[in-house]
Amino acid sequence: EFLDTKDLMMFLEAEQGMAHVTEVISLDVIHKYEPSTEGQEKGWLSLDGFTNYLTSPDCYIFDPEHKSVCQDMRQPLSHYYINASHNTYLIEDQFRGPSDITGYIRALKMGCRSIELDVWDGPDNEPVIYTGHTMTSQIVFRSVIDIINKYGFVASEYPLILCLENHCSIKQQKVMVQHMKKILGDKLYTASPSSEDAYLPSPDLLKGKLLVKAKKLPTNCTGLEGDVTDEDEGLEMPQRVGKDGVEPQTVGTVKRIQLCKELSELVSICKSVQFAEFQTSFQSQKYWEICSFNEVVASKYANENPGDFVNYNKRFLARVFPSPMRIDSSN
């Protein structure tokens, strides 16, 4: 059983979708993949040779050009989809499972460019990471920063966003700052955004940089600390979608926490703010401000306000986090 050059030509055209196939091309395939000397001499492709060809890189569905970066990476950061991880530290379920630094190693090796750090006061004045109000275990903040420093740019040289949910006291916030500055050093991008620009810098300009996404003190704050709304996903999007579109919905009193100036100053072009409505954002949101959307709300915007949502994402970064109904850690 074998294919001659004409049989192979028909297969390449009809099944592989190749255009302008010639006998020369068929012979090239035979000479490259046919294991027997007789087959190569007579221009036959045996079953083994055919198998070799089908399992070779020449038949991969994956475009080999995409093994390296093939897109234009000089556009504003908001023009790209970003490979993101939610509750990166959880390696099992979202309520009782263990927290482990291997979650960060795995995410970073897979090329995630946005990871999450849920930080709370820990024992011995060392901040810890875990999901508050759950039975998940804790890991030391400093060890996660070490992992980020080691693996942050192994899979990709493009910027890594650290989504920092800060629930710490002022005292332990200062410890967080000390660890980040000492371990991460000049990898931290802290340059003040220019009011003359209209868009975020490009991934190309931000290579090797860590962007801290968190709350930031207002510019008129002159003290060493001030208060901001709590960076809590349960409070981040208190919204509902009504018959006439998206309307804000107040759910109780928004909790406020104290934020030290040193931690605030680590936030540059990913300042967390709360979303109100599209027209408000178009008129007053700064390009360096980022809103978080529950996936249910984001889905409704995409279906009911697609034009506004697309235009919003051209100008601003938008972080979409999973519904609380997702209890596994598959993402």
Automatic annotation (TrEMBL):
Localization: Cytoplasm
Catalytic activity: a 1,2-diacyl-sn-glycero-3-phospho-(1D-myo-inositol-4,5-bisphosphate) + H2O = 1D-myo-inositol 1,4,5-trisphosphate + a 1,2-diacyl-sn-glycerol + H(+)
Principal location listed in the UniProt entry: cytoplasm
Domain PI-PLC Y-box intervals: 263-331
EC class (word): hydrolase
Position of the signal peptide: none
Any Pfam family: PI-PLC-Y
Keyword S-adenosyl-L-methionine: no
EC number: 3.1.4.11
Gene Ontology BP annotations: gamma-aminobutyric acid signaling pathway; lipid catabolic process; phosphatidylinositol metabolic process; phosphatidylinositol-mediated signaling; regulation of synaptic transmission, GABAergic; release of sequestered calcium ion into cytosol
GO molecular-function term, one example from the UniProt record: phosphatidylinositol-4,5-bisphosphate phospholipase C activity
Any one GO cellular component localisation term in the record: cytoplasm
UniProt KW keywords: Cytoplasm, Hydrolase, Lipid degradation, Lipid metabolism, Transducer
PANTHER family: INACTIVE PHOSPHOLIPASE C-LIKE PROTEIN 2, PHOSPHOINOSITIDE-SPECIFIC PHOSPHOLIPASE C FAMILY PROTEIN
Protein's recorded name: Phosphoinositide phospholipase C
Species annotation: Ranodon sibiricus (Siberian salamander)
